[in-house]
Amino acid sequence: QVQLVESGGDLVQAGGSLRLSCAVSGSIFSINVMGWYRQPPGKQRELVASITSGGSTSYPDSMKGRFTISRDNAKNTVYLQMNSLKPEDTAVYYCAARRYFNGGYDYWGQGTQVTVSS
Question: How many alpha carbons fall within 13 Å on the CB side of residue 34?
Fold first, then answer.
């Protein structure tokens, strides 16, 4: 089993920055890909970024430019740096982990709220 705990969500003004953290514990050796998702109010959950165990990152086109995913293996933590935040970035942000390079995510955190005011 793998446990994921997000932190860092907050209320921020448009144009500001936030860094989210995801602490990973449990069977960490089984994880090959970590990801950040978000779910805006009334909308479906969407992928923000992902990072492999080797450090390769990937972003959907709509997320490129303002979001940066990174990891600190010594701290078993994955980060999401968010810059130039917009009101439409308001969402619950979830950390996720999967054992295989393809397929769906196996483990999810409880989410952290990010609210961007205009």
Answer: 32
